Amino acid sequence: MARMGRPGLSDQEKSELWRRWQAGQTLTDIGLALGKHAGSVHGVISLKGGIAPTARTRASKHLTLHEREQISRGLAKSMSLRSIARDLGRSPSTISREVSKNQGVIKYRAVIADELAWERSRRPKSCFLASRPTLCQIVASKLEMKWSPEQISGWLKHEFPGKPDMQISHETIYRSLFIQARGVLKKELVAHLRSRRMMRRSKLSTTKGQPRGQIIDAVSIRERPAEVADRAVPGHWEGDLLTGSHNSHIATLVERHSRFTILVQVGGKDTNSVITALTREVNKIPASLKKTLTWDRGSEMAQHKSFTVATDVQVYFCDPRSPWQRGSNENTNRLLRQYFPKGTDLKEFNQEYLDQVALQLNERPRKTLGFDTPAARLSAYVASTG
Fold first, then answer.
1. Pairwise CA distance, residues 198 & 340, whole Å
2. DSSP 115-151
3. N or C: which end of the chain has fewer CB within 10 A?
4. Which element (helix H / strand E) includes 361?
5. 386 class by beta-carbon count within 10 Å (0-12 exposed, 13-18 middle, 19+ buried)
6. pTM to 2 decimal places
7. CA 95, 96, 100: angle at the middle one, nearest 5?
């Protein structure tokens, strides 16, 4: 069944998370460092559009905890508010407001008043564009014309010199786009950015050292044994990752002869997490049904050679942008959307629940099998081979 009530991140963990994100680390690396799922990391970062929140500080004009303690002691001595204000060098009206909004003279407590003041300061600040509808409309129209935020900012300075209300920095435009809680610029406008990223990346982030678009020593699908193509012999599998919200994934394996499906819980999309999970589940399969695995060229299979050593299953890779070469797996993933609709947070489902879903799917009659079930088809083969 689904796992509920996953613990969130503490303030200290969030601070470390943002430090690592600004240093250019990947979601997976941050998750491993914090002992959290990459989806949890993504949830925190995407909420802020990839832009680290500014550290909260108290304004110098606000009352300090020390001053509130002096107010509390003064009230305990039955001092007047004017006397307390004079001792603190504050306006009597400031002290009067402080006491009245914190349960009055009798119940006033310094620590509680200070905590409430800190919480009240969290109220959302007005967005620059929200109070300037004309400027907001201009920015939106230029984004639709595929202008970059930097081009828009520079053009506004050139077009409206000496008019600060008609100027805006490119960083403020990015914040208005990526931090959707502001609700000023529509999220759809992000699609007009050149990168089309849904959140801001650190300038230090890099793909150097990551096997993107290239798998070392990958064996092409064109070298796969002929017996795989005609589906006559069981034991040849197709695999892929089913993706959900918050950077969550499930590995799916489909046996080509019977369409028998195995679902695998993975801790992240990084190759170590995927290979470890696949090895665990594939080694539960009878040896006679472990022959080959066909996968796309995602970097999650970068450690395919260690998978082959651990399972004795040879991995073959599809041609780039050729999902039809894993047709059984693609069709099965579409069936799985009945259980896991797009936008579902897949990290909430444990292996036991995934096994239950796979069982239901394997006991459904399939037209392509003459309305036999995948489970019955594979069981018949295993029984015949003894």
1. 23
2. HHHHHHTTSPPPPTGGG-HHHHHHHHHHHHTT--HHH
3. C
4. helix 351-362
5. exposed
6. 0.52
7. 120
Specify the DSSP element, H or E, that contains 240. Answer: strand 236-243
Residue 21 has pLDDT above 90, yes or no: no
**CA-to-CA distance for 118 and 115, rounded, in angstroms?**
5
Burial pattern 48-77, b for ≥16 Cβ within 10 A else e, equals bbbbbeeeeeeeeeebeeebbebbbebbee
Q: What are phi and psi of 372, to 5 degrees?
A: -80, 165
pLDDT (tens digit, 9 = 90+) per residue, 334-368? Answer: 999 999 999 899 999 999 999 999 999 999 999 99
Largest CA distance in the chain: 97
Instruction: To the nearest 10°, report the CA torsion of 219, 221, 226, 232.
Output: 120
In angstroms, rounded to a whole number, what is the distance separating the alpha carbons of residues 318 and 84? 78
DSSP for residue 236:
E
Among 110-114, 195-199, 251-255, name the one with the lowest average pLDDT.
195-199
Q: Round to whole Å and give the CA distance between 173 and 167.
A: 11
- Contact call for residues 51 and 198 (beta carbons, < 8 A): no
- Which position has the token pair 């990947």? 26
- Report whether 105 contacts 96 (CB < 8 A): no
User: Looking up tokens 């064109």, which residue turns up?
Assistant: 222
Residues 100 and 126: their CA atoms lie apart, in Å, by 27
- Among residues 91, 143, 130, 116, the alpha carbon closest in space to that of 107 is found at 116
Could you tell me the two tokens for 324? 């039809």
C-alpha to C-alpha distance for 171 and 50, rounded to whole angstroms: 12
Straight-line distance from the first to the last Cα atom of the chain, in angstroms, rounded to the nearest whole number:
34
What is the SS3 string spanning 364-379?
A: CCEHHHCCECHHHHHH
Contact 98, 105 (CB under 8 A): no
pLDDT at 210 (0 to 100): 46
Query: Helix 133-144 to helix 170-178 angle, to the nearest 10 degrees?
Result: 80
